Amino acid sequence: MNRPNETVTDSLDAIETRILRAYRALDSQTGMALFEKEYGRRIFALAYRWLGNSDDAQDALQEILIQVDNSIHRFGGHSRLFTWVYTIALRVCRRMRIERRKKCDHAAYDEELDRPEESSGRLPPALFSHQDPDKLCEEQCRELVITLALQRMKPAPRSILILSEFDHLDNGAIAEILGIRPGTLRTRMHR
């Protein structure tokens, strides 16, 4: 898959700078609006792939936005803003998934994954780009298969797969988000 090029990186730097300036000027409303506009869809997609339904993904997005708003003043700039945010997002998604598993027995959870059309969440149309009904249906079916497969993976490989193949992050960013060394990441990617 294609990786972000220098132009995309420069664009991200400008966006991150605008968001951080707004927060530093104590204009958290503008900062959050910019943040949500630039990152909301990507964070929702990450949460959706992690949690498997749009209701939980929306809840996760709200929790992530709250955590970012409450802690952005502690962001030290030692990493990219989106790397820091993805770290928060993965933590929230992991916690929500653990809490969900504690609330329901494992058999019922597996049964819900086997019958996604009956589950509480539907595939979010925001993840699909086609207006043509045939292409939309095809894309939704593909997304359903991917979502079901991701839900059955262990957390570490799921995180790596989502960040590399769906979010197109480079190995350095993925290693930083997961808090592991790049060599460890490469080993895990080839398992």
What sequence of helices (H) and strands (E) makes up the elements?
Answer: HHHHHHHHH
CATH first level: which class? Mainly Alpha
Alpha carbon gyration radius: 17 Å
Total strand segments: 0
Question: Could you characterize what this model shows?
Answer:
By secondary structure, the chain is mostly helical. The chain has one domain (6-189): Orthogonal Bundle (Rna Polymerase Sigma Factor, Chain: A). Helix content is 73%, strand content 0%. It has helices spanning 6-24, 28-51, 54-71, 81-103, 106-114, 133-151, 155-166, 171-178, 182-189. Helix 2 packs across helix 6. It is globular, with a radius of gyration of 17 Å. The relative contact order is 0.12. The model is unreliable at 1-9 and 115-123 (pLDDT under 50).
Keywords:
191 residues; mainly alpha; Rna Polymerase Sigma Factor, Chain: A; 73% helix
Topology of helices and strands:
Elements: H1 6-24, H2 28-51, H3 54-71, H4 81-103, H5 106-114, H6 133-151, H7 155-166, H8 171-178, H9 182-189
How would you sum up this structure in a few lines?
The protein contains nine helices and no strands.
